Amino acid sequence: MENNLNSTVGEIVTGKVTQTPKGNDIDLNSLDLDLLVDYIEKTYHSYIKEKTPILLQYLEKIKEVHGAHHPELLKIFALFSQSAMDLSMHLQKEERILFPVIRQLAKSKKSGQRAERAHFGTIQNPIAAMKEEHVAEGARFDKISDLSHGYAVPPDGCNTFRAAYELLGEFELNLHKHIHLENNILFPKAIELEKA
User: Fold this and answer.
1) I need a surface site. Which of 97, 102, 135, 153 has the fewest CB within 10 A?
2) What tens-digit pLDDT sequence spans the chain (196 residues)?
3) How far apart are alpha carbons 163 and 32 in whole angstroms?
């Protein structure tokens, strides 16, 4: 199963996130939480870490070349630059604080032993913080989408402009899938598991 998780891309289908490896659907909602955390890191966290520097480079270039005629590019660059910094910190908090506790809860469930209490108390505390950050990123990307008119390349846009907007739109969609998976599947199940 892990090889399938590593080699495919998740998608949202009628509110349910699924995997589609060569025609076989894997319901991410049914995965053990430790495997779901692995999937999120290998799919969504890796994507953000890979695409962010590329997008920053593209956006800086089109801002320099087209900024005089398209002042919205300065705002888009500033918003995405802030997003890049905030997402980097967000991923670190998930990977170093929240996800290890979720993995420990999953391990405790499998072994039948009681999990150790986390230093931050209930898992609901870091989850609440992560959800607030998700809301902030969603709002920031709403602004970016509005400024770019839904990532519509203007008639005078060059190939880099086109590549930047295409990747920015893909990045936003990927971010929404990531947030959906955490907010609606991972976090509620982790809270439920901690209570059990």
Assistant:
1) 135
2) 333 333 333 333 223 333 333 334 568 887 889 999 999 999 999 999 999 999 999 999 999 999 999 999 999 999 999 999 999 999 999 999 999 999 999 888 777 677 666 666 788 999 999 999 999 999 999 999 999 999 999 999 999 999 999 999 999 999 999 999 999 999 999 999 888 7
3) 37
Residue 101 has a CB neighbour count (10 Å cut-off) of 20
**16-19: strand order across its sheet:** 10-13, 16-19, 26-27
Q: Where are the domains of the chain?
A: 32-195
Calpha distance 59→92 (Å, rounded): 24
What amino acid occupies position 4? Answer: N
Give the span between the Cα atoms of 96 and 158, in whole angstroms: 40
pTM of the model: 0.82
The answer to whether the CB of 130 falls within 8 A of the CB of 182 is: yes
Q: Cα dist. 104→46, 88, 173 in Å? A: 22, 23, 30
For 60, 62, 73, 110, 137, the CA distances from 161, given in Å and listed in that order, are: 10, 6, 10, 50, 23
Contacts of residue 132, defined as CB under 8 A and 6 or more positions apart, other chains included, come to none
